[in-house]
Amino acid sequence: MVLLWSANFIVGKVALREFPPLLLGALRIGLAGVFLAPAYWRKSRAAGTIWPPADLMLLAFLAVCNVGNQLLFLLGLHRTSVAHSALIIGVGPIFVLLIAAAMGLERITLRKTAGMILALGGVSTLAYQASSGAAPAEATVAGDAITVAACVLFSLFAVYGKRAAERHSTVAVNGFAYISGAALLAPILLWQAREFSFAHVSAAGWSSLVYMALFPSVICYLIYYHALTHISASRVSAFIYLEPLIATLMGVAFLGERITASLVAGGTVIFTGVYLTERG
Question: What is the dihedral of CA 126, 115, 75, 162, to 10 degrees?
């Protein structure tokens, strides 16, 4: 899961060379819905309903969070570097903790508070680097800010999605999110596709789209929720910590991005803050 999600930053950059972000996001979610539709249909028939009325509002909320996260991730990635995007996404456990605390599921201690301040300070450092020109040229404050918003929506999806998955299944939760998300994005897809030349998209562009729809969008989410039902959230988070490191190294290897001293410093601050929060 971590390897597939890490590669998504690189594949996303490749796909964004040929697709505009909104069109790419709409196509990705629509194709993911197509991949999940058969399994979702079978699960729904076994459960006796396609739209579970008791949790319809919750599932609709998750669909909006999922659509928003996927679109904002691509919009942010389009405007920032792989390293910045991956490090900001790595702050996810902070937002998960805040959401869980608001729901009364977690208690915020002094150590956790210090960790959150440190991690968010690291994100602010990355944004400052982007604004001052100390970061790679492709990293911008706007891109970093959009990626933070995507991270918040993913955290909402993770927290509330776990609750929904306990009552239904990972296939039902993700299937509903992607199928209804594809319906929500249909107007954007038609608007963006109206003047886009699909004939000029290369094999690499189409392959990147299929990868993003199948692996990070479908398979990784199914693994994520399946893992949460078998091991603790802290152990799952421990694996997620590897994602920014792997994605950054991939960015260097495949996209020629640079690792600067300021990037290492900002990443170290973020990792330290997230670690303190998780262990607080």
Answer: 170
